[in-house]
Amino acid sequence: MKFLLIASNKDLASKNIANHIKEYFDVFETDKELLSLTDKDLEKADYYIFLSKHRSTANKPSLTVHTPGNLTEDNSFGGNPKEVCPCDAVLNTLLLKNIYKNYRNYFESGKIKEFDVSFEVVHHSPTDLKSPTVFVEIGSSEKEWVLKEAGEIIAKSVLETIDAIKNNEYDKKIRAIGFGGGHYAPKFTKLALEGKYYFGYLIPKYASVSEEVLNQLINKMELDKALIDWKGCRGEDKRKYIEFLEKNRIEWERV
């Protein structure tokens, strides 16, 4: 079982995290931007974990987890239109939970200021990788990207997650896709941190996803159920998603 951890020398947060991992685990380092990478740039692996910065206009300190991909024709941030990378719900959720646990330990001991810890929905490149892919990110400004403690939290969480998956040391839970809600998926983040589900792909209200992409979501991830944020999803999209899920005999639930 091979995990490839990917860091860019052009990304301050990436370098920060990698510096705390390298003494324990090999890191694939590149001089390219992470979002410019494609399948042909990387070694073959069973899992890809990108160590990355997160940027937002709010500049709010944050630690985030998400699978990359383009849910619509819009590929403004690289990759192919309407293509998503494979996803592993266990990987994504263990990363989120470990990051939250380690962040709380640092915060309660006074080592770090307040950060938001959350999933993000599927967005940006790369899109063409052949194995489950996830980004772990420090946001949202240069001040946080270079913060030693933030790098330590992400690094420790990545290593703990790899150990858990390699040793099969995690509980069996429902693996889910989440539809609806905002970019930081608050409802699905909360459910994941409460330990009720493993979440993989998260699809926001603002992206109306075609059947072509829906087929990728159910074929590129081991899936038990779909959850629909009922108040956070447009009526026409709910109808489309439910029809698709029932046609493909996938259990769904409103939350």
TrEMBL record:
The organism's place on the tree of life at top rank: Archaea
GO biological process, one term: D-amino acid catabolic process
Alphabetized UniProt keyword annotations: Hydrolase, Metal-binding, Zinc
InterPro entries linked: Deacylase_DtdA_archaea, DtdA
Cofactor remark: Binds 2 Zn(2+) ions per subunit.
Sample GO molecular function, one term: D-aminoacyl-tRNA deacylase activity
CC cofactor: Zn(2+)
Catalytic activity: glycyl-tRNA(Ala) + H2O = tRNA(Ala) + glycine + H(+); a D-aminoacyl-tRNA + H2O = a tRNA + a D-alpha-amino acid + H(+)
EC assignment: 3.1.1.96
Gene3D superfamilies the record matches: AF0625-like
Family label: Belongs to the DtdA deacylase family.
Function (record text): D-aminoacyl-tRNA deacylase with broad substrate specificity. By recycling D-aminoacyl-tRNA to D-amino acids and free tRNA molecules, this enzyme counteracts the toxicity associated with the formation of D-aminoacyl-tRNA entities in vivo.
Subunit field text: Monomer.
HAMAP family membership: Deacylase_DtdA (MF_00562)
Protein name: D-aminoacyl-tRNA deacylase
